[in-house]
Design goal:
The protein folds into 2 domains: 2-69 and 208-248, no CATH class; 74-204, no CATH class. It has a 3-stranded antiparallel β-sheet with strand order 6-5-14, with no helix packed on it. A 3-stranded antiparallel β-sheet has the order 11-12-13, with no helix packed on it. It is elongated, with a radius of gyration of 26 Å. By secondary structure, it is an alpha+beta fold. The protein starts with a helix and ends with a helix. It has helices at residues 2-27, 210-248, and strands spanning 37-45, 58-67, 74-76, 83-86, 90-94, 100-103, 109-110, 116-117, 125-126, 129-130, 137-141, 146-151, 160-164, 167-168, 176-177, 183-184, 197-200, 202-204. Keywords: Bacterial flagellum, Cell projection, Cilium, Flagellum. It comes from Chitinasiproducens palmae. InterPro entries: Flag_bb_rod_N, Flagellar_basal_body_rod_CS, Flagellar_FlgE/F/G, Flg_bb/hook_C_dom, FlgE/F/G-like, FlgF, LlgE_F_G-like_D1. Residues 5-35 form the Flagellar basal body rod protein N-terminal domain.
Length: 249
């Protein structure tokens, strides 16, 4: 009986955890550059205790092994500061803790200090650190990430190169998602990849399909209900067994 309870109770608990992952994906269907989290169930044997043989007992465990790195849809915005990665690649940003992290969110803007930042206010990293842009200038971002400016009244040829967005392309297997939603590739910063290209005036959207996420949420809710029914059945079977034992006594 306890084998049944191990599986059903742990399955119901992990279904709730997986539901939280699906809900997080669904909540970020409009978040620029968001990468959907993937969750999976696996069976884990119960560790053997001293004097107890539990080798036949297993419980369910939900893991989030990786993210879905499929590119999201690119939407033109007309904003010269917006950039969308073409194909594979990442934009390097400075996380809140000062470390270098990577994102696909290209909805950029200038903050009050003239720094180029993401929609979440994180500084975009250039050749020498966070990128600062002179005020009252027209800004252009080339497809290799080079940022150039022209002052008011300057001729079209009077272009000044300010900096270059650090674009990287680490292997997807080396990337881990942090609690802040940013990706990192170990403790060391990733080298610039000169082959990464961006499209100016556009933003990549989330790669979460809302219809697929809703179906997954419904399916997961039904799985939770199934686990709870199994627990009810285990309780009923136990009551029936106790009655039989009482009658036999």
């Amino acid at each position: 009986m306890d084998r049944l309870i191990y599986v059903a109770a742990s399955g119901a608990s992990q279904a709730l955890d997986q539901q939280a992952t699906i809900a997080n994906n669904l909540a970020n269907t409009s978040t620029a550059g968001f990468r959907a989290q993937l969750a999976a169930y696996r069976a884990v044997p119960v560790e053997r205790e001293a004097g107890n043989d539990l080798t036949t007992r297993t419980y369910a465990l939900t893991t989030v092994p990786t993210s879905d790195f499929t590119p999201g849809p690119v939407q033109p915005t007309g904003n010269a500061l917006d950039v969308a990665i073409q194909g594979s690649g990442w934009i390097a940003v400075q996380a809140a803790d000062g470390s270098e992290a990577y994102t696909r969110a290209g909805n950029l803007h200038l903050d009050a200090n003239g720094q180029l930042v993401t929609g979440g206010g994180l500084p975009v990293i250039g050749n020498g650190g966070p990128i600062a842009v002179p005020p009252a200038t027209q800004i252009d971002i080339a497809n290799d990430g080079t940022i150039s400016t022209r002052g008011a009244g300057d001729t079209p040829t009077a272009v000044a190169v300010v900096d270059k967005i650090k674009l990287v392309n680490p292997p997807a297997a080396s990337l881990t998602r942090g609690d802040d939603g940013l990706f990192r590739a170990g403790e060391e910063a990733v080298e610039v990849d000169p082959t990464v290209r961006v499209t100016s005036g556009a933003v990549e959207g989330s790669n979460v399909n809302p219809v697929t996420a809703m179906v997954a949420m419904i399916d997961n809710a039904r799985a939770f209900q199934m686990h709870m029914k199994v627990l009810d059945m285990a309780a009923t079977n136990e009551q029936t067994a106790n009655q039989l034992l009482n009658f036999s006594g």
